[in-house]
């Protein structure tokens, strides 16, 4: 009985999922965003007259003290 129950459960999930996808496509829900409206704040990469170098620090290079390891 447990083998048949697992197959039935898998079939219900598959058929229900396909029906759900079809309903969403027909109603237009696939094109809807959640949360709606989506609020996105954009930040300019380079604003006119401003340098972005001060805002983004460059990675520091390791100091070469002349010591060699692994040789």
Brief descriptors of the model:
single chain; about 70 residues; 1 helix
Please give the count of helices: 1
- Low confidence ranges: none
Question: Approximately what portion of the residues adopt beta-strand conformation?
Answer: under 5%
- Averaging pLDDT over every residue, what do you get? 73
Characterize the main sheet.
Answer: none
3D structure, described in words:
The protein is mostly helical and 71 residues long. The chain has a domain at 1-46. The protein has one helix at residues 2-27. The longest helix is centred in the N-terminal third of the chain and has 26 residues, at 2-27. It is elongated, with a radius of gyration of 29 Å. The mean pLDDT is 73.
Summarize the structure.
The protein has one helix and no strands. With 71 residues, the protein is an all-alpha fold.
Ordered list of secondary-structure elements with their pairings:
Elements: H1 2-27
């Amino acid at each position: 009985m447990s083998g048949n129950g697992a197959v039935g459960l898998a079939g219900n999930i598959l058929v229900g999922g396909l029906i759900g996808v079809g309903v969403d496509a027909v109603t237009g829900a696939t094109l809807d965003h959640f949360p709606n409206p989506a609020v996105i704040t954009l930040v300019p990469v380079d604003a006119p007259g401003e340098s972005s170098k001060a805002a983004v620090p460059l990675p520091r290079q390791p100091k070469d003290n002349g010591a060699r390891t692994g040789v």
